[in-house]
Amino acid sequence: MNSNNLKKLISILVLAVTFTACVQDDDFNTPGLVIEEPTFPANSTFVQIGGILGDLAQAQNDDGPEAKVTFEVENQYLEGYVVSSDKAGNFFEELVIQNSPTTPTAGLRVLIDVNPLFTSYEFGRKVYIDLEGLSIGTENGVATLGVLSSDEVDQIPSFSQEDIILRSAEMAVITPLEITFEDFSDDLTNLYVKINNLQFNRNDVLGDDPLTFAGEPSDDFDGERNIESCDNGATAVLSTSTFADFKSLTLPTQQGSFEGVLTKNFFGDTFNLVLNNPTGLVFDNENRCDPDVLECTGTSGGANVVFAEDFTGVSISDLENSGWLNVNTTGGTLDFVVGSFSGNQYAQITGFSSGENPFEVWLVTPEIDLTASTAEELSFDIQANFDNGNILTAFITDNFTGDVTTTEWSQLDASIPTGPSGTFGSFEGVGPINISCVDGNVRIAFRYAGADPGPTTRYHIDNLEISGN
After folding, report:
1. Exposed e or buried b for every residue in 436-462, given b needs 16+ CB within 10 A?
2. How many structural domains are present in the chain?
3. Residue 311 has pLDDT above 90, yes or no
4. Considering the chain, what is the average pLDDT of its residues?
5. CATH number, domain at 210?
6. Are 388 and 457 in contact (CB under 8 A)?
7. Which domain holds residue 213?
8. Spatial distance between the Cα atoms of 378 and 461, rounded to a whole number of angstroms
9. For 414, what's the count of Cα atoms within 13 Å in the CB-facing half-sphere?
10. 344 found inside a domain
11. Does the residue 20 lie in any domain?
């Protein structure tokens, strides 16, 4: 190194040391960004989310559900409060806004070709959106604002983001709207909600291999987990993106509350709950609300088949004539049928497009005599399809009254598999379930209880068998 370069290096080091000695550490902190309230042209008008949702409803009443509304008035601004956050990766290139920080009545999804958004539009930030040239329609089942492209509402371009979506200086405290699963409706989508007394199904979280939010090999784009109410056993779907930074966390085993956004799945046919981050689950109650299930402690398993039904070569009428019961207790027409695929037959049911809300349908076996056998156990196969909630439960009784609603049933500890939300699943074995402590003439029953709209998972039941000695 020559002498001139050496002198320069020494001078730089001296200056650096001198500067560091004269400046305290906290003077290097980035100064807080002061956001000023935006100014608007004198002729500006301001509209509410409920108002443009009303415009959309009128257009869809006149022209059908695919109708869109495009706004052409200059200096017309929509007001709203941000209730989504993409900081944890569970939202992507979209904002969810609602009309009020407390007791909201209307919400909207806004598509923007920008990532991330939380650095500009924080949770609770009030925003103004210049509506000129934007369009509103229903996409993925929820009201969506953006730019019209090929008759679909698409993203606001990144280069116009700051001109279209203006930040207010107001940062509101968002109070979640407390609801229940039974309250789910299109009017509540895109709102920040709270639901109390929830837990994940015991079969998903209490075993040796508990589920993660969205880190399973079968999770494609989103992990969908059934979450159940401790008040009435109803279920809903918690959806988590496979890009979320908490996707590999295991689901909590306790019960508690959910805070997040009510929306719908990609197909727009099922309500979904979406977290901004995992702190939206406050599961701090160690006392779970699991149902009492039959617990037989004796030895089970034997080589003799006591009862079997694989539904091959039969119709539902054949089953009913042989003593099976197929009962809709809610007065509708939905019932079990015998379905088939690739030569395989099975009992099948789906509430999709039934219009029955709620529905409860029972499929009950004929009497099965267990007096001459011991160590009995039950097994069957289940295929869950287009899964939007775990709504199938298995029971047993040794004292059937002839009426499923007056019979005293014992719930079986049957782990009903979950399936994909948008297609058919695969048959999975359930059991063997130890039923050795039940004697005499017994019946096995499957109860299918949900609602349309609501949980309508399609189930196929096959290879029902009781074995023993």
Report:
1. bebeeebbbbbbbbbbbbbbbbbbbbb
2. 3
3. yes
4. 90
5. 2.40.50
6. yes
7. 177-285
8. 13
9. 29
10. yes
11. no
Distance CA(17)–CA(419), nearest Å, equals 64
Q: Across residues 198-211, what is the average pLDDT?
A: 87
Tally of residues, the chain: 469
Residues 368 and 393 in one domain: yes
- With beta carbons less than 8 A apart as the criterion, state whether 97 and 48 touch: no
Quick check: 10 pLDDT over 60? Answer: no
pLDDT tens-digit profile of 403-415? 999 999 999 989 8
Question: Which amino acid would we find at residue 74?
Answer: E
pLDDT given at position 33: 65
Is it the case that residue 30 has pLDDT exceeding 90?
no
Domain-ending residue, one of 115, 141, 171: 171
- 36 in a structural domain: no
> Which CATH number fits the domain that encloses residue 353?
2.60.120.200
Question: What distance in Å separates the CA atoms of residue 388 and residue 237, rounded to the nearest whole number?
Answer: 6
Task: Pull the structure tokens for residue 165.
Answer: 């979506």
pTM assigned to the model: 0.76
Residue 182 and residue 165 share a domain: no
DSSP 265-327: -TTSSSEEEE-SSGGGEEEEE----PPPB----S----SEEEEEE--TT--HHHHHHTT-EEE
**Do 344 and 417 belong together in one domain?**
yes
Mean pLDDT of 256-264: 97
Looking at the structure, do residues 336 and 379 belong to the same domain, yes or no? yes
Dump pLDDT digits (tens) for 138-162.
Answer: 999 999 999 999 999 999 999 999 9
Q: Which of 52, 145, 51, 49 is nearest to 106 (CA)?
A: 49
